Structures are given as structure tokens and as C-alpha cells.
Amino acid sequence: MESNRILYRRFHESDFDALYEILKNDNVTRYLPDRTGISEERCKQWLDYFVKSYDETKPKLIYALIDKESSKLFGYAGVAYLKEFKLNEIMYGIHEALWKQGLATEAAKKMKELAIEFKLKKVVALFDPQNIRTNKILIRLCYILNDIVNPWGMDLNYFKTEI
After folding, report:
1. How many CB atoms neighbour CB 102 within 10 A?
2. 40-52 and 16-23 are packed helices; what angle lies between their axes, rounded to 10 degrees?
3. What's the pTM value of the predicted model, to 2 decimals?
4. Cis before residue 33, ω within 30 degrees of 0?
5. For residue range 98-146, what is the model confidence (pLDDT) as tens digits?
6. Residue 33 — very low, low, confident or very high, per pLDDT cuts 50/70/90?
7. For burial by CB atoms within 10 Å, which of 20, 25, 47, 100 has the most?
8. Cβ distance 116 to 9 under 8 Å?
9. How many angstroms separate the CA atoms of 38 and 147, rounded?
């Protein structure tokens, strides 16, 4: 699967170093439940989740984002089932060095297209209210802010879109 500048593929165990490089950064994880750069052990848990939970029947799909030009892994994006909401969530994270280049918007748009392919009727996105850039991306992609929720001990904007 691909979009304009990104190749999307399943995660592999060999992606640990690239994923850790992204997730150890405090700025990248500031709006995630960990709030600070994650440890190697926590990154192994994330990668294990990304690798083992991939399931096209749910769908529960988290992709490695690969730059078409350099062939380097620079982030993750997915459509994952949230049992707490009984809906699928669009998610993504990008290496800080590539922020402000439209890659997050491109990945989020591709995940919405994937949700349409899977014939999902509603999709949500949960993001920290202070993450202004992501909130703007979701609004641009026609998500509507419905509520503020606290499913994992942190307030999150609850965006929803009907497909």
C-alpha cells in the first residue's frame, strides 16, 4: 500500500531500532499516555503489539511508514479496534525531524481511506487537546470533535467521522 510519499507495510521485529529512535523522543511522546520518551523495554512492548496484533479481519492494522525516497522507517499509522469504544481508531506518529512536511496529514488521510475500504461506518481519533497540529489535521479531514474523554487516565479529544 502507498500514498504520494509513503509506503505502508507491516512492522517486523527488525524495525526496533527505527521505532525506538522515534519513540524515545520526549517531543514525540509528549501527547501519548507515557508523556515522555519511552524506554527500550516499553518500545519492545509497542513493537510486539504492532507486529502481533495485525489482523485484517477486525481490522487492526498498524503500519510502518516508509519514506519512498530514502526507504527509511519514519513513523507508524494505523486503523486499530478500540474495545473501550467498540469502534476503530485512526492513529499515527512521526519522527520529529519530519514534522511540518504534511506527512502526518498524508498518513491520516490514507488511514481514513483504508477505513472506507474496510466498510467501517464510524471511525474515531483520540488525541491530546494540547496537540494543536493533530487536532487541525483531523478537522481538515472532516472529523468532528464530539467530546473530551478519559479512557486511560488522560483527557483526550474524541473526534468522530462517519464514512
Report:
1. 13
2. 120
3. 0.92
4. no
5. 999 999 999 999 999 999 999 998 999 999 999 999 999 999 999 999 9
6. confident
7. 47
8. no
9. 28
Q: Which CATH number fits domain 6-162: 2.60.40.1190, 3.50.50.60, 3.40.630.30, 3.30.70.890?
A: 3.40.630.30
User: DSSP code of 9?
Assistant: E
Element (H, E) at 43: helix 40-52
Question: What is the radius of gyration, based on Cα positions, of the chain?
Answer: 15
Domain locations in the chain as residue ranges: 6-162
User: What is the rounded CA–CA span in Å between residue 68 and residue 5?
Assistant: 6
Closest CA to 6 of 85, 55, 70, 58: 70
Distance CA 11, CA 101 (A): 23
Calpha distance 1→16 (Å, rounded): 21
Relative to beta strand 122-127, strand 87-94 is: parallel
Pairwise CA distance, residues 152 & 71, whole Å: 34
Which positions ≥6 away from 86 have C-beta within 8 Å?
Answer: none
CB 66 within 8 A of CB 11: no
Contacts of 113 (CB under 8 A, 6+ apart): none
